[in-house]
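To illustrate the input format used throughout this study, we show a single complete record. The first block contains the structure-token representation of the backbone; no residue identities are included at this stage. The design step must infer an amino acid for every position from geometry alone.
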């Protein structure tokens, strides 16, 4: 009886700074650990093992040659682990070329890795089945319209070729080497906010940043001050504004500086209020236009992966678990007596957190969650075990980012052991 291990979305490879594997040591240890398991086992990497889209200076099988040259220890470990248990990978969107060129089958087989060039693969677990896919077919921007056709690339291919790979080429030029992490920002709609955050906290001239800081920190106070002025002018209540004037007057020079900051902010607020309405109309029209061309996701509260899983469960009564990746959000959910599993990513992840004070940009907290699932049959049931490879979170936030934001709580806690009893 086979036991299955699942990981996904490693995104190994790409131009320049994208070459770095921040979890390489942990991946090698994980593969070495699998060599020692005393069971009939298969490791399935369900998509985006490699970042082939992110290679722009190489074509065809030259990309695979580059992978071999850059990561010799990893491929030797794949060969060693693959001699003890089956290692299977399926194409994702970022390594879609694996589905389009048969040469990859033989090249990977030489390293004891089995490539199945299919959108979906299925595995028996006891009397039940596992339905396994990458998940890009439920993403309209990354859906492969003619799977296996090397020329049928989705919109996401062109985005990565022109933006993600370029970020890898340019990342080393920054004050800090941060731009390469653009592939870790999900969903893509957060990228503009992430760029603004990194410009302010990392790339902006420090003198300019700290000159602007008092105005940004006092912005909310200025809004409150404007409200007090309005209720004073309208005669509703004048006491609060008198108290504020008295307090600022007692602070001397400091009070005068605070009063100046508030006055400047009030001028800015007034200007923003004047342009807000026409600006809103233009921004809304631009977003509508971008959505019409498929360049911006439209709000949709439906979950296409749950919809897909439910359709699979209806059509295939023996399927106990629907397994996918792609979104980089590890999760375990139940639908009646079945399971929907997202295998997550081993890339760095970012959690956006609003600043506690003022009008400062969002802080993106980095973290790692090197997740894997183990699935086996036991006494007529399907047992799903979840575990993580230990890796400390990066300590790369600036002092200012740590001061103005609070580290977010970890999302989506997953039980160590779940039983699917059908």
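Output of the design step:
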């Amino acid at each position: 009886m086979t036991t299955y291990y699942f990981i996904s979305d490693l995104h190994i490879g790409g131009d320049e700074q994208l070459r770095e594997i921040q979890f390489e040591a942990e991946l090698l240890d994980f593969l070495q650990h699998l060599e020692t398991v005393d069971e009939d086992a298969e490791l399935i990497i369900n998509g985006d093992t490699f970042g082939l889209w992110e290679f722009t200076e190489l074509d065809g099988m030259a990309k695979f040659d580059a992978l071999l040259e850059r990561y010799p220890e990893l491929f030797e470990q794949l060969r060693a682990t693959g001699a003890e248990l089956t290692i299977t990978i399926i194409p994702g969107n970022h390594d879609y070329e694996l589905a389009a060129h048969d040469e990859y089958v033989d090249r990977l087989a030489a390293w004891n890795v089995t490539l199945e060039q299919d959108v979906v693969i299925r595995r028996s677990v006891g009397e039940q089945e596992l339905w396994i896919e990458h998940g890009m077919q439920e993403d309209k921007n990354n859906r492969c319209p003619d799977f296996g056709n090397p020329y049928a690339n989705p919109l996401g291919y062109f985005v990565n070729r022109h933006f993600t790979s370029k970020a890898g080429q340019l990342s080393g030029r920054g004050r800090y080497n941060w731009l390469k992490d653009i592939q870790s920002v999900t969903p893509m709609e957060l990228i503009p906010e992430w760029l603004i955050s990194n410009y302010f906290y990392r790339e902006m001239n420090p003198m300019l940043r700290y000159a602007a800081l008092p105005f940004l920190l006092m912005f909310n106070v200025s809004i409150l001050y404007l409200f007090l002025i309005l209720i004073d002018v309208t005669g509703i209540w004048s006491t609060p504004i008198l108290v504020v004037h008295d307090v600022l007057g007692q602070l001397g020079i400091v009070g005068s500086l605070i009063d100046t900051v508030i006055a400047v902010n009030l001028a800015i607020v007034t200007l923003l209020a004047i342009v807000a309405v026409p600006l809103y109309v233009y921004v809304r029209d631009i977003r509508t236009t971008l959505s019409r061309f498929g360049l911006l996701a439209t709000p949709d509260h439906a979950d296409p992966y749950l919809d897909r899983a439910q359709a699979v469960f209806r059509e295939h009564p023996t399927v106990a678990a629907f397994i996918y990746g792609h979104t980089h959000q590890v999760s375990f959910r139940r639908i009646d007596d079945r399971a929907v599993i997202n295998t997550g990513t081993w890339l760095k992840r970012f959690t956006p957190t609003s600043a506690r004070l003022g009008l400062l940009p969002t802080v993106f907290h980095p973290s790692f969650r090197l997740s894997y699932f183990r699935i086996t049959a036991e006494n007529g049931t399907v047992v799903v075990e979840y575990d993580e490879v230990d890796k400390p979170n990066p300590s790369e936030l600036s002092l200012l980012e740590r001061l103005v934001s609070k580290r977010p709580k970890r999302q989506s806690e997953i039980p160590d052991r779940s039983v699917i009893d059908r």
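Structural context for interpreting the output: The chain is about 40% helix and 20% strand. The mean pLDDT is 89.
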